Give the backbone structure.
Amino acid sequence: MDGFERRKEQKKRNIRKAAFDLFSQYGVQRVSISEIAKKANVSQVTIYNYFGNKSELVKYVVKEYMNDIAKDFEPFLNSDLPFPEKLEKIIFNKKTAGQLMGDKGFFEVVSVQEPDIQEYLEEYARTKALPMMLELVEQGRKEGYVNPDISTDAILYYIQMFRDATSNPDLFRDENQKMLLDLASLFAYGLIGKPLERK
């Protein structure tokens, strides 16, 4: 990558971060391209040259955000840790939990106000998140931690129920942070299972 390309990629990173911060704080509709340009220290023309319009910028920000989350999960999935430790690190990892809760405003605005983004998030869940979860479940089966009598279809349905239940933006308000962790614990361990270890 030559100097021009490096500068271009750095500008795109600056624009992405500025847009993410502003969208999270104020909502997509209330943030203008000029405000993003000012925060990113670039011209509005630069943003339009790179992304075409605000809608495409929003899509880019969401996709990059989701890709970052996937990159955080992959080391755990590919590690040699036993299933229970791997599951706990994935679900209760402080960085992941911090992203989930700290960026709740971002998810709230894009999921409610941007139908294209909602469609992308659903596609992401179907093509990336779900396969990763099934891979983890299969490991749990092989190690004897996941009940072999429970069908994959039932597990998929369970995951979908959990996903539907946690898709309400109100759930990500500050006062519900403990409940989010409790729901994650219920998802992983059921009503009669290992309690969540607070760290």
